[in-house]
Amino acid sequence: MTTPTLTPYRSQLKPGRDGFARLLRAEWTKFRTVRSWSLVLAVAAAVTVLISLLSASGSSTTGTGPKVTLGPDGTHVNDTFNFVHQEMTGDGSVTVRVTGGLKSSRGMPEPWAKAGVIIKQSTKQGSAYAALMVTPDHGVRMQWNFTHDKAGSGTSGDPRWLRLTRTGTRLTGYESADGTHWTKVGAVTLPELSKTTQAGLFVATPMHTNLSRSFGGGSETAGTTTAVASFDHVGLRGGTAGATWTSTDVGAPADNGRNQPVNGPAAPHPGTTKVSADGVYTLSGQGDIAPNEDVPDLVQMSFQGVLVAVLFMVALGALFITSEYKRGMIRTTFTASPHRGRVLAAKTLVLGSVTFAVSLVATAVAFPLAQHTLRGNGFKPPEVPELSLLENPALRAVVGSAALLALVAVLTLAVGAVLRNSAGAITVVVILVVLPHILALALPLSVGHWLLRLTPAAAFAIEQGATYYPQVQHNCLPESGCYPLSPWNGLAVLCAYVVVAMALAMWRLRRRDA
């Protein structure tokens, strides 16, 4: 028996005028006249504000943590290290050879342990500096004012000559394999430097941390470690004639941080300095000279309602297209406007514009309310910075979170156009956007990171307010608001999914009749 061929429905009515402006007006009229859609949008905005406020109310701190150190630009920093120094007046240079690389009390040194030469405004924590160093895993580096880092050669273990020169406020770093042929690593201008600075040798190492997570649980261990480095051919130009070297544990407690004469009695703090008869300086020390990333991310903590609001945007995006298929009204729409691509574009523009505008108001209201609540719960300067709505990263997070919600609505619209079923579209988008965000909290860390790189859930990185610097090794925990991609790169992943889904929807509309 042969199956009769069905002829697709084609209306005999004369097509209407389908100018794009008319289409926009028609789609806007549909949206505003369906009260349930407006109600869903209003609930999404209210949820964004209320959940963010409730989450902020449940977060508190005693504010009795360790003393906060601020760098020259106001960044929270770690500035604790063993420093062997002399005064440098005006222009000059400090030169050493680091011999034998870095060693550690734990066996293998930390990847970002460092030893080298430094010119620093003073021994006060947070003061301006530039340093040239060797590291175990990252070769020679020039770093300055905590947040800046420039790579030199990849050499780590071989003896390496280092030289840091000062001309006015310009500091230039050089490295050499033989002490004769020098290669420039980098140069920087530090206007904060006064005429008299402290110049010399240093060693530091960050804490040792080990994080493991498997199905059903995880563990984290952390502890201090001591780095040891040896220097010879120590030379200082620009110092005071006849001056002696002084060893200081920068950042040590007041009762333990006294300046120690080189080869003096053992200090009660971890840093030690010894000089052999043939002029080899051996320094040991703990601490780090780097940005401090252990600061609560108050920006991310102010947008907890966005994840819940996503569910409402998913429902709204699906209903905006699938309801027309369910009731057969899509045939009327395509009769009035036979250019189906224009219809989809008009729906996308209306839905995206309305959801973005409403979401922007919601996130702009949620942020200051959550910030006020967090400050009332102990998150105050200087332990945590004061954040302004109109400055980054807060402004980026407010606008980006609104864009995230609008893009999720558009993504669901496109999936709905492909599947033509509300439940199916909602399920697919929830699995893509919400489920990876939840699974990343329970799965092994490496698997969770890949989920937050490859799925639209990567877009939640736009809420991050903390800056993660490449010269600081850190454990990026999703439950702490850390995402493996940068904020804009994470949002770009969602944009890519939207583009692909829209292309599939366009193809589907043109290939299959209503």
Termini gap: 28 Å
H/E element sequence: HHEEEEEEEEEEEEEEEEEEHHHHHHHH
SS-derived structural category: alpha+beta
The radius of gyration over CA amounts to 30 Å
Can you characterise this structure?
The two termini are 28 Å apart. The protein folds into two domains: 20-62 and 297-511, no CATH class; 77-291, Jelly Rolls. Helix content is 36%, strand content 25%. The strands form three sheets. Strands 2, 3, 4, 5, 6, 7, 8, 9, 10, 13, 14, 15, 16 and 17 form a 14-stranded antiparallel β-sheet that branches. The protein has a two-stranded antiparallel sheet with strand order 1-18. It is elongated and about 95 Å long. It has helices at 20-33, 35-57, 305-327, 329-336, 340-376, 394-419, 422-433, 435-439, 445-454, 487-511; strands at 77-79, 81-104, 114-120, 129-135, 139-144, 148-151, 160-167, 170-176, 182-189, 196-204, 208-214, 217-223, 227-239, 246-250, 260-261, 272-275, 281-285, 289-291. Helix 2 (35-57) runs parallel beside helix 5 (340-376). By secondary structure, the chain is an alpha+beta fold. A hairpin with an 8-residue loop joins strand 3 and strand 4 (129-135).
What would the keywords be for this entry?
single chain; 514 residues; alpha+beta; Jelly Rolls; 2 domains; 14-stranded antiparallel beta sheet; two-stranded antiparallel ribbon; 18 strands; elongated
SSE inventory with pairings:
Elements: H1 20-33, H2 35-57, E1 77-79, E2 81-104, E3 114-120, E4 129-135, E5 139-144, E6 148-151, E7 160-167, E8 170-176, E9 182-189, E10 196-204, E11 208-214, E12 217-223, E13 227-239, E14 246-250, E15 260-261, E16 272-275, E17 281-285, E18 289-291, H3 305-327, H4 329-336, H5 340-376, H6 394-419, H7 422-433, H8 435-439, H9 445-454, H10 487-511
Antiparallel strand pairs: 1-18, 2-7, 2-10, 2-13, 2-14, 3-4, 3-10, 4-5, 5-6, 7-8, 8-9, 11-12, 13-17, 14-15, 16-17
